[in-house]
Amino acid sequence: MARALADGQPDAIHPPTWPPMLPALPLDDLIGRHFFIEGAPWRYVYDKQLRRFSLKRLAPSIEFERALELIATGELLWAPPEEFESLHPDTSIEAVQQHVALLDAFRRSPLFADSRDWALPARIDARISESRAWLTRRALRPGEGPPAAS
């Protein structure tokens, strides 16, 4: 899922098909907008050399809490993937907590409110519930949880 920058520089350019999921907006609405991808802010701009639109990385990273604020207000766009990966036992608790925080910020965003995908709210809520249940199970030490069904 994570992809290294082409040259390791903050201003690296990628073609528009690179990100796993851009919001379902018309091209005119994407141009000049800022996105949260792989922990960093990106901007959708026209690249004269490539003669097409590309994502330009604006900084190596952004503080996660600040990104959440910007996503919730719609200043920084983020969209969940079409399909969520399964939560495995070896997934870090911090990664799942950040995923839940991103989903929650997205749920408060104008992008979510304006979505025409009628299944999106149920999909987001189901994933948040699943992730919180996973976190609860991980927080319990062996033997502290409810008895196993026989």
In brief:
It contains five helices and four strands. It has helices at 27-30, 64-73, 93-107, 110-113, 120-139, and strands spanning 13-14, 34-37, 40-47, 52-57. Strands 1-4-3-2 form a four-stranded antiparallel beta sheet, with no helix packed on it.
Written overview of the protein:
This protein has a four-stranded antiparallel beta sheet with strand order 1-4-3-2, with no helix packed on it. With 150 residues, the chain is α+β, with helices and mostly antiparallel strands. The chain has one domain (13-139). The radius of gyration is 18 Å and the shape is globular. The longest helix has 20 residues, at 120-139. The chain has helices spanning 27-30, 64-73, 93-107, 110-113, 120-139, and strands at residues 13-14, 34-37, 40-47, 52-57. It is built from five helices and four strands; from the N terminus they run βαβββαααα. Helix 2 (64-73) packs parallel to helix 3 (93-107) and helix 3 (93-107) packs antiparallel against helix 5 (120-139).
